[in-house]
Amino acid sequence: MAPPLIELVGATKRFPNGSGAVHTAVRDLSMSVDPGQFVAVVGPTGCGKSTTLSLVSGLQPASAGRVLVHGTDVQSIPDGVGYMFQTDAVMPWRSVLENVASGPRFRGAGKAQARAKAADWIERVGLAGFEKYYPHQLSGGMRKRVALAQTLVTDPKILLMDEPFSALDVQTRALMQDELLRLWSGSGAAVIFVTHDLDEAIALADKVVVLTTSPATVKDVFDIPLQRPRKVEELRLTEEFRALYSNIWESLRGEVDKARQKGASNVA
Amino acid sequence: MSLETPAVSSASVPVLETEQDVLAKAKRNAGRHKRNVWLLRLAIVVAWLGSWELAGRYWIDPFFYSMPSKIWQRLTEWFTGGTDFGSIWYQILVTVEEAFIGFVIGAIAGVICGVVLGRSSYLSEVLAPFIKAANAMPRIVLAALFVIWFGLGLSSKIATVFVLVFFAVFFNAFTGAREVDRNLIDNARILGATRWQVLRSIVLPSATSWILSSLHVAFGFALIGAVVGEYTGAKAGMGFLISNAQGTFDTAGVYAGMLIIMVVALFAEWLIGGAERRLLRWRPQMSADDGRRDI
């Protein structure tokens, strides 16, 4: 069997919390992702899901344990990683075309070549005709499409997504989920998709990893044997989906309750 | 509630305003508003200059306070027959040259130092007290020293302009470089940007709006620096002209000089505003911005 593409072994991340103590965001977390696999990571709000992604991306080093990508320890940003952030990370001073072309440009492609590649991806995410627009002239959903194209144009083998659609309204979100599945299906990329929306996780993923409340570690892992290609809106109404949902929610609910109690005691 | 057909059929619903009416009305209102604003501005100018002129003729001594007609007379004299020290255009050119060269050097140095310190928290922590002290210093007084060091010519004025412009630009570039969105930098790094590329394509554009807004103030400072430098010691320029007018109790000459500098500053402001609008095309139009454009 091929070795996993991404592997976290007992990964731990600690931060100074600003008032002299140490905050442990992730503790002893082990999981693995195979090439081409779509893994959703769910957990209560603020549990350390995003930190997990920054460990894999190499933006932050682990405090303990190992993070392996392509079988080697992550020292800096590994090759072939794309990262979609929760908040808008498109450059407001660049047009849609220049934004999408910036990845290839940073990597040394010529201007014409980068633009041709960008134009192709802009069309694929359904933004043809908007090449010359600036981000502030676009809607939230369209900006997400730009970010998606900006990430995918570098042809990543690993796609890290940090609640990318959480700021969108329900209809736009469903639309973007379908778009993501469509674009991902041909790419062969492995995805780690962080979300606190269980619906989203089940609809998109092959495997759902449930994290505990802070400090995060893996509580349960569920396989999602739903058929592809999927239509997110229709999928939600099926028996299979409801059964999976209630099953995983059983596991997640305990953590959400704990997180709530913690939040309540912090407030009090 | 059921959807009943309305008693009045849609054909007979009266149209009180067509789309054209709405547009025409909005246009009419906007036109009237603009006209009123300009009329009021004109009224303020007339009232101010008129009362000054009247006071100068009947009440205060125009020898000390001058009056608009005398200033106008001095201006026409300067522009038709030249000043005592050569053509007025030459004097303006000298001052603008000093201000411009000092402005360019000062702005570039300010941006470079600001961005470097803004990106390096260590360096900025070390240098913070020195920068604060240098900023608190009455830098305009340095003009006197610069005349001693660099003589009466161009270089002493450029030095004065430089110290004024540098700090104005530096602080804005510093803040701009420090406030860059962390997310944008991370995103660029993931997309494969090197340190230099991050600086050029993320930090600099991000700081641009800060830097550009400082340039408005900085060019005003540049003109002040040039004029004060000339006032301290020079052989030509608007400051020299004003200083000379003061020496001969020519109050109208002082005012006339001020007026010319003012016009130059407004012209430069307009140029910088144009550059700013071009460079910040990507930004959503803000109503405050539109308001300023009017002024």
Structural features, described:
- Chain B: InterPro entries: MetI-like (IPR000515), MetI-like_sf (IPR035906).
- The complex is a heterodimer of chains A (268) and B (295).
- By secondary structure, chain A is α/β, with parallel strands linked by helices.
- Chain A is built from eight helices and ten strands.
- In chain A, helix 2 crosses helix 3 (111-124).
- The model of chain A has no long low-confidence stretch (mean pLDDT 89).
- The model of chain B is unreliable at 287-295 (pLDDT under 50).
- Chain B is 79% helix and 0% strand.
- The longest helix of chain B is centred in the first third of the chain and has 40 residues, at 19-58.
- Chain B has twelve helices and no strands.
Residue share in β-strands of chain B:
under 5%
* Element string of chain B (H = helix, E = strand): HHHHHHHHHHHH
Number of helices of chain B: 12
Query: What's the overall average pLDDT of chain A, rounded?
Result: 89
The number of helical elements of chain A comes to: 8
Q: Helix-strand pattern of chain A, N to C?
A: EEEHEEEHHHEHEHEEHH
Estimated radius of gyration of chain B: 27 Å
Query: Helix fraction of chain B?
Result: over 70%
Rounded radius of gyration of chain A (Å): 19 Å
| Percentage of residues in strands of chain A | 15-25%
**Main interface by residue count:** A-B, 26 and 22 residues
Compute the separation of the termini of chain A in Å: 52 Å
The computed structural class of chain B is mainly alpha
Please tally the β strands of chain A and state the result. Answer: 10
Distance between the termini of chain B: 55 Å
Counted beta strands of chain B: 0
Q: Taking all residues together, what is the mean pLDDT of chain B?
A: 88
